[in-house]
Amino acid sequence: MKRLYNIIAGLLCLVSVSCHTDFLELKPDSRLAVPASLKDMDALMDNMTVMNTTSVLIMGEIGTDDYYLNETEWNSLTNPYQKNGYVWAKDIYEGQQCPGWNNAYTKVLYSNIVLEGLGKINQNDKNMEQYNRIRGTALFWRAWQFFQLAQIFCDDYEKEAASQKMGIPIRLSSDINQPNARVNIEATYQQILHDLTEALTLLPVLPKEKTRPSKQATLALLARIYLQMKEYAMAKQYADECLAIADELIDYNKVDSRLSFPFPLYALGNVEQPLFNVMLEIQVFFSYLKVNPTLLASYEPNDLRFSVYFLKANNDYTFKGSYNGYDTFNPFPALDEVYLIRAECSERLGNHEDALQALNSLLIKRYKTGTFQAMTLANTKNILTEILNQRRKSLVFRGVRWSDLRRLRKERGYTLVRSLGTKKYELTPEQENLYTWPIPDNVIILGGGPQNVR
User: Fold this and answer.
1) Beta pairing partners, 312
2) What DSSP line would sit under 151-197, residue for residue?
3) Which residues are bridge partners to 184 per DSSP?
4) How does the average pLDDT of the chain come out, rounded?
5) Interhelix angle for 335-348 vs 215-228, to 10°?
6) 0.85 exceeded by the pTM?
7) In sequence order, what are the beta bridge partners of 55?
């Protein structure tokens, strides 16, 4: 146990330091103990303060159209990446650190330490189950970080160009003196899929704790990834496999919308959420969040998502509908998202009836009992448009809106507009470079490969 305390203390020291200097700059501490037992490695992966929190996907949320700030609030933001990210500026960091990047690679470090430690342990019949679960957990967490980083720091996946465009540094070693060179987007996604495909064979079907990954969580994540890659047949396959394990949806008629936070605390008892996960808490959302009136107006009178998700504050609305059950955002795909993935992929593959069935199965749980009119081929003009509209209304502040804007910007022609006083800022479908955040400056200085052009 003393060794474990040394491990965690040493690694938390790295996390603390990384708030002030770039994580990939850090030099290894010769006093840092290496986990030598399965018990130690289990504890390392169960460190929810590190593994389950500070998701980098919050950076994508900064640029979305689901909320707005007024000029006074915007001027009061103290962190450059939040202030500049809101208006899609070319210079994001102004020489300061990027906490999201640092936190993600800290989780990658934890995962790599465990994977290397497992390589030194002999498997046998007695430890096989624990060994496999720990290995699957480390692979899962590493892949989940790489995917999140790819949504922020490299272009969206386009099959034809994926081998020509730069991805992220894929760190597969705990040696932090390892070069930080970026691989291409294709190699980035292939590593993510490789890790998750193996994790799928190792993890339990369902977890004992919401803080631990599982086979169902892995299937949900694979469905999201393949949707982002526009591989619709694969995304639907994994969505179907995920829902074959458990497909229960929350009936919002049974949710008390009068509560400040209507869903179960820490996602415990939330049948839709397979994994407790937390986005990085930042000033722009936790001090000033006001929901976009256009989004609010899109909900019909009997749509319970409005009263469950949003709380009126003065003349505006804020968000209370986190599946974590308190004032943090959970970016991990829940089962309502998996239903929407099934619906979208079915429609794109030409299976209109299947698409409507998946969509109706979700929406009947979201409308006041007896008021929902099922969508049919006869009463639905454009099924795909309806699915995408419902996707936005269901997955508010779930870490997917930025990814959706990226993958759909050409197809749907989205233009985002910010107004601050007399100034207007626009993000058009043609401004592809502004959909990709720059690599942190000090990573580039340390040989992290070419910088993203803004």
Assistant:
1) 317
2) HHHSPPP-TTTTTTSEEEE---SS-TTS---EEEHHHHHHHHHHHHH
3) 166
4) 92
5) 40
6) yes
7) 279
